[in-house]
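Anyone able to model this chain together with uridine-diphosphate-N-acetylglucosamine?
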Amino acid sequence: MSTEPDAPARTCVALILAAGEGTRMKSATPKVLHHVAGRSMLGHVLAGVAAAGADRVAVVVGPGRDDVAAEARAIAPAARVFVQTERLGTAHAVLAAREAIAAGCDDLLVVFADTPLIEPATFRAMRAGLAAGASVVALGFEAADPAGYGRLLVENGDLVAIREHKDASEAERRVTLCNAGLMAIDGREALAILGGIGRANAQNEYYLTDAVSVARGRGARAAVVVAPETEVMGVNDRLQLAAAEAQMQKRLRARAMREGVTMIAPETVFLSHDTRLGRDVLIEPNVYFGPGVTVADGAVIHASSHLVECEVGAGVSIGPFARLRPGASIGAKAKIGNFVEVKASKIGEGAAVSHLTYIGDSIVGARANIGAGTITCNYDGFDKARTIIGEGAFVGSNSALVAPVTIGAGAYVGSGSVITKDVTPGALAVARGRQFEKAGWADAFRKSREGKPKKRV
Ligand code: UD1
Ligand code: CA
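re: yes, here you go
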């Protein structure tokens, strides 16, 4: 055991710039509220800085963007929201949150809300750069096509300046190490550094990137943390949104497989940021997981199934072609077969709903068997009503269970029944027309038509 006292933890304020206009999205929704893997880009960034140990969060939004502010508060209730009233550049946007910076911290982490793929480890590496003595840490990447990006000018291992593309010389434009935009700044020096930034540049803007030269002018050091280009990717239009989605999916699939999930064709499986998959879960091709899905150990999700906000128990078999909607909870070893839809219902352990069925607002007891084509009629156009099916009950094929209704434990429902009254435990209920016969009727009918032409159309 170490006898050294723990180093005091460094405090961190994360400042998220979400004032982007996002006009290239061509959308009624602000850019940072567009989703990647089932969560807004702003949500990803908020989660990322929280995982990197940010103690406080400030979000800078554009004027009138209550929707962005509301999303920030929904995900990080303690977040403070500031409005940048004029767009005068990234350093100006940071200073819109002056109060949050003035409150003091060791590490100020400035993050763009349209850069959703940054890993918490990268934020931590930037903070570590500050702890190691730099006053400014920029995040860099080797750009396949550097055009348009700020260039990181490094001399003898030190970051000496960031030059915006529009302000760069020919020689500087040949540099491929580019600025991702995010920055970590020593919290105690931040206001002095930011206050020293002017707007004498090609765009007449206050550039956050000038924090590097200002800090060096004060005798401080600047450093670079380098990340893969796929991680620092920003989103400005729908094509880049799709590229970010693809990248995030790769990451989520890899994480799931590393944790013991088998995917036969991982590139066809779509996960959400919060999908939880147990060990030895097998996922066949073309499966979609919306937000809020948990799948326990050993379950199999057969091809072409769609799951959102639901729970799948251990050893369960789902699909192929099954749809689990919000509030579906499938007990261990149960079976949900092809063309079955389940909504807001609890399916008991070992129950089987094998084919062509709708179960909504229901409770299905353990080991019950629901025949093909069964429908719980839960809606009368105004209200939803519940169906309760007891343990071990057997519902014959093509039955309509008109809710509210209860099928007692162990009871049978005859095929083709329309059940409108409760069924007593252990009983058989049949609710359909009785079968009768007229002997010879068919032959007599044909005979009466003999010699007449048959209409074809
Ligand atoms: C910025 C960097 C550039 C980097 C690039 C990476 C600066 C000066 N330049 O350039 O070095 O290579 O990102 O993509 O920082 N924003 C505001 N208010 C403003 C201006 C911007 O909130 O007044 C927000 C934007 O919404 C966006 C972010 O800051 O989320 C970056 O601004 P943008 O204008 O896109 O900067 P770039 O020119 O791309
Ligand atoms: Ca940009």
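DSSP finds eleven helices and 36 strands in the chain.
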